[in-house]
Amino acid sequence: MAVHDRDRAVVLGGSVAGLLAASVLADSYRSVVVVERDVLPSHPDHRRGVPHGRHVHGFLPSGLRLMEELLPGFTAGAVARGALLGDVLGNVRWYLNGCLLRQAVTGLTALSASRPLIETEIREAVRRRTNVTILDGYDIVGIGTTPDHRRIVGARVTDSRGEGSRVLPADLVVDCSGRASRAPRWLTDLGYAPPDEDVVGIDLSYATRVFAIPPGTFGDDLFVATTRFPGQRRSGIAQRLEGGRAMVTLAGVLGERPPTDLEAFTAYARTLPVPDTYEIVRAGTPLGGPATFRCPTYVRRRFERLADFPAGFLVLGDAVCAFNPVYGQGMTVAAATATALREHLRAPAAPDPLRFFAAQSRLLDAPWALAAGADLALPGVTGPALPPSPLTGDYLARLQQAAVHDADLAAAFIRVTSLVDPPAALLSEEVRTRLDQRQRADSSPAG
Asked: Given this model, what pLDDT does residue 444 score?
């Protein structure tokens, strides 16, 4: 039931995080305005403000569950547009260390669709909220404050089509403007300390092509994920899309540059340790040209460590933590962050930025540790040292090797990487016992 005990909220950025934040805010504010730089398409289509949107996307099971809580009917609407559903282990080929994890039904549903389809379904659901307005085609110029700079009271925006500027008064401004967020600079200009930044230097490069594929090319699977492992700088993921298409993204790190020319792209796919992705490319008919993406670094801004912060201002999504996109965590974490915002807004008091940042940081810890930990294990990747963890590289390697033959261990591992269970779940007595049993069986003469 809507509360509507506050007046207006302004959301900066109309991508997934911004749209989900707007939906949550609509339960507590009489009006919500989403400001988006792009002129938004009326149908699923790529847009300039999502440079990563032409590459593989999907909702992890935990994200899909949260989406249904935030926007009931999202899954059915996406499927009606052509999205595909499947089991996150039973219908995904996970190749780790060049070996296929044992496929099995887990009961955890993953969604496969193009980014434009996903974003369009979310946007249309948010537009149906009668107190939400999406103001597209506007550049965000800055934020307005009280004379003492203690409170943010609005946002200054300019029509990118040359129709002038305007000030949007607000009780709350929420920055969801993504990796290029100017929040740190705004804070500095107002006399506040900017957040510390944890920066991981990965030098990631993507090349992606879309293909029309014959029926049955994937079998019953939705994704084929061939991950990077020690000694490798290349990886790939093939995704079955709506409309009888496949999207294939090839990735390289630390100087690896996947080619875009079709012949070279196909040859690069053939260098992966298993042939599945190459076979999909070879079977497909190219649709359109290639797309590329560079991610030299990814960043976590530590807003939760600030001692002082202006009232009436929150920062969410990639503006706080921009993950390595190869792990597919972004949209799921955006849904989790929106859920945390919803819980925070249920308190009768005005939003407390520092308290919210602390809650947001706690939910970022696990996905950040999974992504940054895997990347920092690769010689040449730079970044901050992570807290010591009992999940050592040796333990994970043994677990992954055993999971090639053991469906229960494969499911336990995928539940963690899908952000359903915390990493500590892999250290449970049940998992350790199962791992020991599997290793003894594999090392016995009969094994």
From this structure: 65
Q: Are residues 290 and 303 in the same domain?
A: no
User: Hey, what are 384's tokens?
Assistant: 């901050």
Boundary-marking domain end, from 320, 340, 371: 371
Q: What is the pLDDT of residue 446?
A: 55
Separation CA 437–CA 431 (nearest Å): 10
Residue 114: name the closest of 54, 65, 71, 40 by CA. 54
Indicate the number of domains in the chain: 3
Is the whole-model pTM more than 0.85? yes
Domain, as residue range, for 421: 393-443
Residue 259: CB atoms within 10 A of its CB come to 16
pLDDT over threshold 60, residue 373: yes
- The pLDDT > 90 percentage for the chain reads 83
Which of 155, 146, 152, 184 is closest to 311 using CA atoms? 152
Q: Would 410 be classed as within a structural domain?
A: yes
Rounded alpha-carbon distances, angstroms, from residue 444 to 125, 405, 410, 437, 441:
56, 15, 21, 11, 5
Please report, in angstroms and rounded to a whole number, the separation of the first and last CA atoms in the chain: 59
Domain boundary among 235, 267, 297: 297
* Pairing of the two strands 285-302 and 313-315: unpaired
Neighbours of 69 (CB within 10 A): 12
Are 342 and 262 in a shared domain?
A: no
CA gap 100, 102 in Å, rounded: 6
Q: How much is the pLDDT for 43? A: 75
Q: Give the Cα separation of 359 and 339 in Å (integer).
A: 11
